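re: the backbone from monday

yeah here it is again, tokenized this time
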């Protein structure tokens, strides 16, 4: 039998337990779970996101390149949809009832969906539709129009540099840790992507009182709880718009790339890719359709050739071979080699064009002798100071990598490629360790074989030559919010493994190339240009025309690389384009209108590409 004291204790425990459960529930409802608070608030308040204006983009001279334009999105708070005149709504918007239902299904399945949070129902209303909604908004409880900005591009140039903005994906929303919401925009490519955090600004929140008819009644508590948006920071690029636009005119109707760098700073003056596209195709309601059209275009206009396309460098690589050979002690300015329309290395024969023989280093560069630089390569790889071919090759590769090849340089644009500098392991897998030597890979000595170099890397090598042995990482942004970009990566000097003393004879020879060698077409009056032509053999068609140069010789202001696909010799198209670009940048004038006119009127894209010269004979030379 239970005594009375035990009954009392039991009752006390029951009452205390029930009370404790109620307290926990009240705490959950009032503090932890904000569902009911949101329900009450959303019956009288609209929580509207105030989107900041993205930062503007300028060129190095203060010319505006990218600005903002107002757009209007139709927003909906799903929980507030009561007695909606669906037929009238669909009529104003110009959609069917089935489409209306499909959109709500997509909204409900989207990441981060909440029936209490406003989401986009229709993006970028046209002005007539926007006006119609403003007149009838009181009939459509739960809907309101929100203003934000979209990008406008002043010029059609530099599309691959500027990039574009687009709607966030579920993955981006998740990675942003709550910053982005469904329907938000972010930088997808180019500067818009690389500097998204600086350009996007900070969103604000505005609380607006609405009546039962969905009509705004003013700010809640006079805006006491509102947070102001903060506009994005303006970005000043390193680009010279005039030079960029001029380069795009010269390369029009030709597949290829132009990259121009200021050697002393690593600032990119122009970076041209063709085929290209109008960046304004990525604004407005048709951006998605336009993207798909460009993506399917066989010309690949979205492909950023200057930073991603690896080309065989051809004879411009002879410049690097000249430096590596000297550094390895197997070459000096007086070293001579003969050439009889080429030379044989084991079972491999390398052809060359007619010229005097034998040649020393300076003449070998100026005339671009294939036999000479194959011999230089062989002397490096077969050097007896190394115990094996693999060890000598690894040392050669180490030197080549120090010029920024075979790796990403670190440009502040997405999508940079590495190019390719083959490894000894690669060849040992093919031929067997200890069963290959210099003659096996002899084509590397003249920039062929498995070598792949991006136009950006080519221009960077030219900057190294202009600086006599070092480069600063190429970059596209100069200042943010008017303050010089404070990024140590864009001020540090990267030195090659070749001593400065060995650059003199090479630069002398590069001057000879332009003044009396294979690139006399690039010669300028009163400006010393140092350059090197290349004809990169292409297994898929006609050879590529390649040229790089810097000018003036003393205190260089511009280093440039040009690649024109399927265009033949380096002096045919690449050298004239580079020469005109140099003249335009340094003098702001063009003294050879005949050359300019020829390039502007040349269409190489719609001509059949063959691997033959104008004589119909195979093109073997890489000068």
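seq for it, each position gets an aa:
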């Amino acid at each position: 039998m239970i005594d009375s004291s035990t009954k009392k204790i039991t009752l006390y425990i029951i009452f205390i337990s029930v009370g404790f459960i109620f307290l926990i529930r009240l705490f959950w409802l009032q503090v932890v779970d904000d569902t009911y608070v949101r329900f009450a608030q959303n019956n009288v308040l609209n929580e509207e996101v105030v989107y900041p204006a993205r930062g503007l983009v300028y060129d190095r001279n203060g010319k505006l390149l990218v600005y903002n334009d107002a757009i209007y999105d139709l927003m909906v708070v799903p929980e507030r949809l009561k007695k909606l005149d669906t037929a009238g709504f669909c009529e104003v918007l110009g959609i069917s009832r089935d489409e209306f239902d499909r959109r709500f299904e997509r909204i409900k399945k989207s990441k981060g969906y909440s029936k209490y949070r406003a989401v986009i129902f229709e993006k970028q209303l046209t002005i007539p539709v926007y006006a119609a909604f403003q007149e009838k908004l009181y009939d459509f409880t739960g809907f309101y129009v929100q203003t934000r900005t979209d990008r406008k591009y002043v010029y059609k140039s530099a599309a691959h540099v500027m990039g574009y903005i687009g709607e966030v994906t579920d993955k981006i929303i998740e990675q942003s840790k709550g910053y982005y919401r469904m329907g938000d925009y972010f930088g997808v490519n180019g500067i818009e992507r690389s500097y998204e955090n600086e350009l996007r600004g900070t969103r604000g929140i505005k609380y607006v009182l609405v009546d039962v008819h969905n009509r705004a009644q003013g700010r809640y508590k006079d805006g006491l709880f509102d947070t102001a948006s903060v506009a994005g920071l303006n970005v000043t690029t390193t680009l010279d718009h005039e030079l960029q636009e001029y380069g795009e005119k010269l390369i029009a109707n030709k597949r290829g790339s132009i990259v121009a760098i200021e050697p002393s700073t690593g600032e990119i003056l122009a970076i041209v890719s063709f085929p290209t596209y109008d960046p304004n195709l990525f604004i407005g309601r048709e951006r998605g359709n336009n993207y798909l059209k460009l993506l399917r275009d066989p010309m690949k206009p979205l492909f950023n050739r200057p930073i991603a396309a690896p080309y065989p460098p051809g004879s411009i690589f002879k410049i690097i071979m000249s430096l590596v050979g000297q550094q390895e002690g197997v070459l000096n300015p007086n070293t001579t080699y003969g050439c009889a329309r080429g030379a044989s290395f084991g079972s491999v024969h390398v052809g060359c064009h007619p010229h005097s023989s034998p040649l020393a280093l300076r003449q070998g560069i100026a005339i671009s002798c294939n036999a000479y630089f194959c011999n230089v390569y062989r002397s490096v790889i077969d050097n007896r100071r190394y115990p094996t071919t693999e060890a000598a090759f690894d040392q050669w590769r180490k030197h080549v990598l120090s010029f920024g090849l075979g790796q990403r340089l670190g440009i502040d644009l997405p999508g940079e490629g590495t190019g390719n500098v083959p490894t000894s392991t690669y060849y040992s897998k093919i031929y067997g360790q200890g069963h290959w030597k210099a003659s096996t890979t002899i084509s590397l000595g003249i920039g062929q074989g498995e070598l792949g170099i991006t136009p950006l890397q080519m221009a960077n090598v030219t900057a190294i030559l202009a600086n006599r042995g070092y480069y600063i990482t190429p970059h596209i942004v100069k200042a943010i919010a008017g303050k010089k970009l404070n990024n140590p990566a864009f001020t540090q000097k990267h030195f090659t493994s070749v001593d400065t003393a060995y650059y003199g004879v090479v630069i002398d020879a590069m001057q000879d190339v332009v003044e009396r060698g294979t690139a006399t077409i690039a010669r300028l009056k009163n400006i010393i240009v140092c350059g090197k032509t290349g004809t990169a053999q292409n297994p898929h068609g006609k050879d590529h025309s390649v040229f790089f140069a810097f000018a003036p010789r003393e205190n260089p202001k511009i280093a440039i690389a040009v690649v024109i696909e399927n265009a033949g010799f380096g002096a045919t198209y690449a050298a004239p384009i580079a020469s005109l670009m140099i003249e335009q940048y340094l003098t702001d004038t063009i003294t050879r209108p005949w050359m300019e006119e020829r390039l502007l009127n040349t269409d190489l894209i719609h001509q059949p590409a063959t691997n033959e010269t104008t004589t119909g004979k195979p093109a073997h030379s890489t000068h």
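Confidence is low (pLDDT under 50) at residues 38-43, 609-622. The two ends are 113 Å apart (CA to CA).
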